[in-house]
């Protein structure tokens, strides 16, 4: 049995799972999203260059990916530190920080934030989507990729001794590319060796989550220890959602706080409101999936920080939980979603 077995691995070391408390399973504390810059709507080019001031925040909420400065969360460590202190005050215990290779993972900053705030931080191993894979990464064999991921969990990542406690978010698009498929296979092989949690960023198509599960399963992955992220912008039909739920992964609704009219990466998608997200959670609970739901905000742009009038990392605890209770999800079920499910997922086998 490995020393990791029965434990959760944070950036400050191993933890007894009972110490985690309320957990957001998909956040970013420091990263760059420059890889996914999206040009502003025609005519708005000048607006996109506006300074970060209150009167421009509505435009940024609608067009978060069209302003270069907004994509640099890594410039906001002081604000994020304040946010984490507020998160603790609001009853939060742990944050899974899924920044992977390709979007400026910064483990020393995560370690410092955990030390400064007392929030447990679990860091992510592995690779983001294809467009961030280097030429060297694309040439690697599945075995080499597996070795790198395993080493990030067992020994530390990015030249540090800071160890990752989860594999992911592993980035995939639609269709899934050859390089992403290799990374998925490596993820499954590493998970089989380590008995660790995995988290996936699926492509923006309702068929994408099931296709990822198929690839992971075929390579020996453990779907019962895998979170499928971003379901709020991926699967919209109740029947399709239940079909996917049967495959046995955790079901993550992680864009709480994101409300926008036009989702630039896929204009077919009507981004749900927070009320609609809560409605979907209530539906999944009614259908018997209360042990498989996890939630988060996936903060990855500056405008979502309270410093800039955003909702911050405490939005779920402060605003969404009361709404969940109002919509028939019991306190016991809320505790499963915020505490028990993340704990079970994050504990090494
Ligand atoms: C790195 C952050 C991330 O991948 N967020 C998901 C954005 S979206 O695909 O849901 O738009």
TrEMBL record:
The entry's keywords: Hydrolase, Metal-binding
Protein name stated in the entry: N-acetyltaurine hydrolase
PROSITE patterns: PHOSPHOTRIESTERASE_2
Reaction(s) the record says it catalyses: N-propanoyltaurine + H2O = propanoate + taurine; N-acetyl-L-valine + H2O = L-valine + acetate; N-acetyl-L-leucine + H2O = L-leucine + acetate; N-acetyltaurine + H2O = taurine + acetate
Any one Gene Ontology molecular-function term assigned to this protein's record: hydrolase activity
Residues reported in the UniProt entry to bind a divalent metal cation 1: 26, 28, 169, 298
UniProt cross-references to SUPFAM superfamilies, sorted A to Z: Metallo-dependent hydrolases
Organism: Larimichthys crocea
UniProt family annotation: Belongs to the metallo-dependent hydrolases superfamily. Phosphotriesterase family.
Cofactor binding note from Swiss-Prot or TrEMBL: Binds 2 divalent metal cations per subunit.
Source organism superkingdom: Eukaryota
